[in-house]
Amino acid sequence: MKVRLLLRQIRNLIDDFDWAVMEVPPGSDKMSGCVYSIGFGAAFAFAEVLCIGIAPGEAKSLVNQLGARLEAAGTLPIGQEIQGLIPGCSVLLQPMQESEAAPMVAMAVAYYSYARSHGEIYPELSVVQAIVTKLH
C-alpha cells in the first residue's frame, strides 16, 4: 500500500513539474545513497539522471538544474563536461547499463511500469550517471 501511495505522489509531482526527484538514503544492504530523476524519459525523451556520492541537497539541486536545462534546450550533452551547475565543478553525464542502474533507480522502474499501466506513454528506461569533478 505504501508503494502505491508513493507512486501516486510521484505522478502528482510529474503532473505539476514534468519530473520528480527521488532520494534513496544509504541502506543496510551496503548500497550507498543516491538521488535520481523520474520523468525525464517521458517529458524530454532523455535518460533519467542518477547522482551517487554527492550530498543529497546538492544532488537534488543538480537534478533540478539539469531538468531546467532539458526544458529549455530539449537535450543535454552526454560524454561532455557541463559547467556552471555546481560552483567550481564540472558534471559529466555517462550512460549506464540497465542491469547496473535498475537496482539503484528501483522506484523509477516501478513508476515507468505504473505509468504504462495507466495508459501513459513511457519509453524504455535509460539512465545516465552524473559524475561531478572539481575544476582545478
Q: What is the total number of structural domains?
A: 1
Supply the number of helical segments: 5
Q: Helical residue percent? A: 40-55%
Shape: globular
What is the percentage of strand-forming residues? 15-25%
Q: List the secondary-structure elements in sequence, H or E.
A: HEEHEHEEHHE
Alpha-carbon Rg, integer: 14 Å
What are the low-pLDDT stretches, counting only 5+ consecutive residues below 50? none
CA distance, first residue to last residue: 49 Å
According to DSSP, the number of beta strands is 6
Which features would summarize this protein structure in a list?
alpha+beta, 6-stranded mixed β-sheet
What's this entry about, in short?
This protein is α+β, with helices and mostly antiparallel strands and 136 residues long. It has one domain (2-134).
